[in-house]
Amino acid sequence: MAFRDPVxxxxxxxxxxxxxxxxxxxxxxxxxxxxxxxxxxxxxxxxIQEQQKSTQTMQATFRQEKELALLSAPEVSTGTFVFSKxxxxxxxxxxxxxxxxxxxxxxxxxxxxxxxxxxxIDVKRFEDRIFKYMxxxxxxxxxxxxxxxxxxxxxxxxxxxxxxxxxxxxxTKRVRRIxxxxxxSSYITSKVEYVEGDGDIxxxxxxxxxxxEAVPAxxxxxxxxxxxxxxxxxxx
Length: 236
What we know:
Blueprint: H1 13-26, H2 41-54, E1 57-67, E2 75-84, E3 88-95, E4 99-104, E5 107-112, E6 117-122, H3 127-131, H4 138-146, E7 147-154, E8 159-166, H5 169-172, E9 175-183, E10 189-196, E11 201-211, E12 229-232
């Protein structure tokens, strides 16, 4: 049986790694642009790398919107996100369906409170690929291998925008485009848009972002109620 993501789509290696990448994209504060008037792609990326190294924890509220060929209307979900180095991530979907997705101790566990069931998959062999994006320069360096960067300073919107386009057709088959919006007032990532090779689009908007505030270890433990069956799954 295939492991599924919160909107019911089969979980692939690409989807799993995307969760780690999204966490890394969220951790790109641009406190870099010390000179807002003269900000350039090079200066912003340099400071992003410097700040990424110092990011130990992240917490945020998110709004996820998915436009899928199989859906007649966009699927909108809301919830919270927590990350702690080196390898703990918790996505808590609160609406329209309650779902918790936890990566900890080499396993990805998805808990469906309303269905009183949980699914677990071993991701230890994928952890290096997932969490290398959390390194000091991992996200930017890795993305730069496959994407060209375009930088836009949008004063009216109060944002910097990084637009990533694939360098070759092989990458385009998997990802057509990634856009990252960086809020100029708070200097943190406020929005990410990810267009897959088949045209499906996923957008994340982040608010109430907190960097390097204490996160107790208990946040990364799912205390499942008695009677909840945990099913071992396989990744496609």
